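Ticket #4471: structure export looks truncated?
Reporter: QA, pipeline team
Priority: medium

Steps to reproduce: submit the single chain below to the structure queue and open the exported record.
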Amino acid sequence: MKPVKSLLPASRWLLRISLLTYLVLQHGKTILDLQYETQAFYIGLAFVLFGVLLFAGGFTSRPSLTVVSALLLSLLFAYYIYLGFVPQVTITQVLNVMLLSVTLYFMSSANK
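Actual output as written to the record:
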């Protein structure tokens, strides 16, 4: 059976939408608390900002916005994996690795 290549653009947009939705739901409360003194505020703000930029990069013809925001999101997810590392497999670790793979996908394929 041949792959359905016509679904590729729709799947890319679903990845963008679901990543942005996850980031807003995960870090939105931290941002809305407006506690400027905490590190969690700035990390949450960076996650949401780069998620919005990755989403907006899908509307541009040049891939630079998508690649840069995906690179920075990849670094943030790698940082989260490092911070939350425990010597057992947890749902949080698996989710962060999966989201890291999504950002690496956008970093490698951009707006094709």
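Status: closed, not a bug. The export was complete when the record was re-opened. Leaving a note from the reviewer for reference: The mean pLDDT is 92.
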